[in-house]
Amino acid sequence: MAYNQFGLIQATDFNTFAGGNPTTTANTINATWATGGSTAGYGQTAVANVAAGQTVAASSWNALVSNTASAASHQGTSISSVTAPVAGGTIQFLSAIPTNLSSIYSGRLNAATQGSTATNTATYGSTWSSILTFTHTATFANGDAARFFFNSGGQIKMTVSHPSGTGINLLFNNLCSNVGTIAMSAVTSGTQSIAGTSYAGIQKVGGGGNSPTIDSTKGYYGLTTANATVFTQTASTGPTGYLSTFIRMIVKSNGTQGSNGDTGSVITVYTIWDEVPDGLTVAASSATTMTLAAPETTNLSNSWGSITLAGTVSGS
Question: Is the pTM of this model over 0.85?
Answer without folding.
Answer: yes
